[in-house]
Amino acid sequence: MTTTATRTESTTEATAKTGAKSTEFVLSATRIVVGFLFVCHATQGLWGTFGGVDGAGGAVPLGSWPGWWGSLFELIGGALVLAGLFTRVAAVLCSGVMAYAYFTVHAPMGLFPLQNMGEQSVLFCWIFLLFAFVGPGRWALDSLRRSA
């Protein structure tokens, strides 16, 4: 009977370790994908890539508030999140940029994100807030900084 109990505990511990490794992998992979998408989103405003802000390759006028500055914050913050460097601070900044975008651009057009085309801003805002709380995952430059 002791052998069975020990085997069960070992199996449980092994399952927990596997689950933790999977969680770290998924967290890191999600951070990388979201950071990359946010950088792409920033380049739309700064340089008109991927169809630009108007669908015809237009960029936000240089230095204009809040569009150009928001795109610059998106580029820097998104790159930091993508790399996993100063992730929590960068994620708070990115979350705030998206909250500002939602409430100043989208919310005046309607109450719900599906009405006002703000679902992308809402999703980015909440995902970055999640990274601010849970961190970047194991595969991040922040992890290398901590271990050095």
Characterization of the model:
The chain is mainly alpha-helical. It has one domain (27-51, 58-147). The chain is built from 6 helices and no strands. Helix 1 packs antiparallel against helix 2 (67-83). The longest helix has 46 residues, at 2-47. It is elongated.
Salient structural properties:
148 residues; 74% helix
**Tally of separate domains:** 1
Distance between the terminal alpha carbons, to the nearest Å? 46 Å
- Alpha-carbon Rg, integer: 20 Å
Number of helices: 6
Low-confidence residue ranges? none
The count of DSSP E runs of length 2 or more, i.e. the number of strands, is: 0
Classify the helix fraction into a percent range.
over 70%
Q: Which class do the helix and strand fractions yield?
A: mainly alpha
Instruction: Describe the largest sheet.
Output: none
| Percent in strands | under 5%
The geometry reads as: elongated
What number is the mean pLDDT? 90
Element-level helix/strand string: HHHHHH
